[in-house]
Design a protein that fits this description.
The complex is a heterodimer of chains A (114) and B (112). Chain A is mostly beta strands and 114 residues long. In chain A, a hairpin with a 5-residue loop joins strand 4 and strand 5. Chain B is built from no helices and 11 strands. Chain B is 0% helix and 58% strand. In chain B, a hairpin with a 4-residue loop joins strand 7 and strand 8. In chain B, the strands form 2 sheets. In chain B, strands 2, 4, 5, 9, 10 and 11 form a 6-stranded mixed beta sheet that branches. Chain B has a 5-stranded antiparallel beta sheet with strand order 1-3-8-7-6, with no helix packed on it. Classes of the chains: A mainly beta (114), B mainly beta (112).
């Protein structure tokens, strides 16, 4: 029973490029959450999605960031025109329902913008 | 002021010691309280979960919530070198919102 799979594990992008981060939830999980972790800081909520729906995007920056969770395939977090301040670890979590104690986190994607 | 405050440490203790980790918070809407353990370069894993006030024990771990003081604690008894990790407190509202608010984490080192 595979856990939450995130890829790539490490991603290097030059300023101005696009970054696409993928998250495959655990089998049977239809709720996906994205969090960002800056160095020496805790995780910050970005977005909560269910299949084909964005439920809460209150933590997403207004520009350049978008997320989707299509009917088929992984959830994607997309960052356009990356800047150095986007360098962080991005974690995805999934849960089988909307209980807050049901999260399982992936190992994260570490984005470095050079 | 951050919604959740957590001492970053690092906290270094000898093997077998009792460890006390704490968080304070300011949001009265928080009703769900969790402790996560995060090893280096890994995702957080849930250790303890408490709803509202009270204590909860699981093996060597005890979680306490004092809502009147807006203060939560995690105690680790008989600490082991394998407990060396960063411990994150996390809180959620009972308002239908499913986002968690995390503390910045306390780095713990248990010396053999």
């Amino acid at each position: 029973n595979a856990g939450v799979m995130q890829n790539p594990r490490h991603l290097v992008r030059r300023r101005g490029q696009e970054a696409r981060l993928r998250c495959s939830p655990m089998k049977g999980h239809s709720h996906v959450y994205w969090y960002r972790q800056l160095p020496e800081e805790g995780l910050k909520f970005m977005v909560y999605l269910q299949k084909e729906n964005i439920i809460d995007e209150s933590g997403m920056p207004k520009e350049r960031f978008s997320a989707e969770f299509p009917k088929e395939g992984p959830s994607i977090l997309r960052i356009q025109q990356v800047v150095r301040g986007d360098s962080a670890a991005y974690f995805c979590a999934s849960s089988p329902d909307d209980r807050v104690d049901g999260y399982t986190f992936g190992s994260g994607t570490r984005l470095t913008v050079v | 002021q951050k919604e959740v405050e957590q001492d970053p440490g690092p906290l270094s203790v000898p093997e077998g010691a009792i460890v006390s980790l704490n968080c304070t918070y300011s949001n009265s809407a928080f009703q769900y309280f969790m402790w996560y353990r995060q090893y280096s370069r890994k995702g957080p894993e849930l250790l303890m979960y408490t709803y509202s006030s009270g204590n909860k024990e699981d093996g060597r771990f005890t979680a306490q919530v004092d809502k009147s003081s807006k203060y939560i604690s995690l105690f680790i008894r008989d600490s082991q070198p394998s407990d060396s990790a960063t411990y994150l407190c996390a809180m959620g509202e009972d308002t239908g919102r499913r986002a968690l608010t995390f503390g910045s984490g306390t780095r713990l080192q248990v010396q053999p």
